[in-house]
Amino acid sequence: MELRASGATVYQFEGGEPYMHTSEFIKEGMVRALAENKTCYAPSSGIPELRSAIAEKVRNRNQIPASTQDVIVLNGGMQGLFGAFQSAVNPDEEVLVFSPYWTPIKDLIAHCQGKAVLVPTVEARERGFGPTLDRYANERTRAIYFNTPQNPTGLVFTADEARAVAAFAQERNLIVVADEAYEDLVYEGEHFSIASLPGMFERSITVFTLSKSYAMTGWRIGYTVATEPWMTGLRKTTLYSSNGVSTPTQWAGVVALSTSQDVLEKNVRAYRKRRDLLLDGLNELGLHCERPAGAFYAFPDVTRINSNSREAAEILLERAQVATVPGIVFGEHGEGHLRFSFSTSLETIEAGLDSLRRNL
Ligand SMILES: Cc1ncc(COP(=O)(O)O)c(C=O)c1O
């Protein structure tokens, strides 16, 4: 920000939101709601029209056997995660978190006086999910945080990996907090909801958002799907905090959910093009990076620049005016990496890579 204020061009890869604007027909949905005076209090858990549209979506697209009463409309994925941990985790209990992980998770768990226990995803993939989870679990373990596609790595857990995590959760009587914020951004393989597995709906709290799928980050709308007793916890944390999402926003949400599959697929093609451009460039520069299967982040190993990711980020910023996020921000297993978002214009990706080629 300082560099930009001084007039320098900064190639921005540090963001975490869609590069496109919200579609016109969704904005018109809100305008219509305002014109029709849909501006009064809505039920705290959401307007029935939106809740039932969501229930239908999760049944058809996620294969989660939810009905309307299992759905709550919330202020984005963040409020869903807050409510999920608040309803599931008691003081001194532990939550297994695949790591690197999305930064706020640790604090959300700490806010319940619980403890996040980091489970290296690399180790789980090498040694198997069951044995690895077993190594980090104990009698205080209460839940597993399962984010797919993942922020910051772009990793997508396979259906078999979800099955292994589900088997462990069932064996140990654990709750799964599933974070599926990037469900519509998958480039390799397919998105798979862990709550669709037999016996898992009852022990899962699945968090979704309209932020990433429909470019609606600033609207603050998402939804969470769960059965009792978790739904009561989610309802209470909502009722006594925000008391629901703004009514016209919810009507726009009904419209957003009607977005055609063609549009979602077109978005995926546009992101894939950006991913491939960035990945080829980073690997050419010797910043080794696995091709992320989902989300819109690349997480290259930058130890050839500096093994301290904060220093590496400084170096990229100072020498090449390329802004990224240091991997350490996503926990100790993110050290030695930088997070680049490819949710930006093709021109910015080309110009940023060019600057890295010239200045690194
Ligand atoms: C993994 C993950 N989960 C949830 C969210 C929540 O997003 P929102 O609160 O905008 O729905 C984000 C946003 O960056 C995210 O990266």
Provide a descriptive summary of the structure in words.
With 360 residues, this protein is an alpha/beta fold. Helices cover 41% and strands 14% of the residues. It has 13 helices and twelve strands. It starts with a helix and ends with a helix. The mean pLDDT is 97. Pyridoxal-5'-phosphate is lined by residues 16, 76-78, 102, 147, 151, 179, 181, 209, 211, 217, 222.
What is the helical fraction, as a range of percent?
40-55%
Strand sequence of the main sheet, in spatial order? 2-8-7-6-5-3-4
Bound molecules: pyridoxal-5'-phosphate
- The number of distinct helices, counting runs of at least 4 residues, comes to 13
Low-confidence stretches: none
* First-to-last CA distance: 21 Å
What is the C-alpha radius of gyration, as a whole number of Å? 20 Å
* N-to-C SSE string, H for helix and E for strand: HEHHEHEHEHHEHEEEHHHEHEEEH
What can be said about the biggest beta sheet? Answer: 7 strands, mixed
Q: Quote the average pLDDT.
A: 97
Briefly note the structural class of the backbone.
alpha/beta
Give the overall shape, derived from the CA principal axes: globular
Number of strands: 12
**Portion in strands:** 5-15%
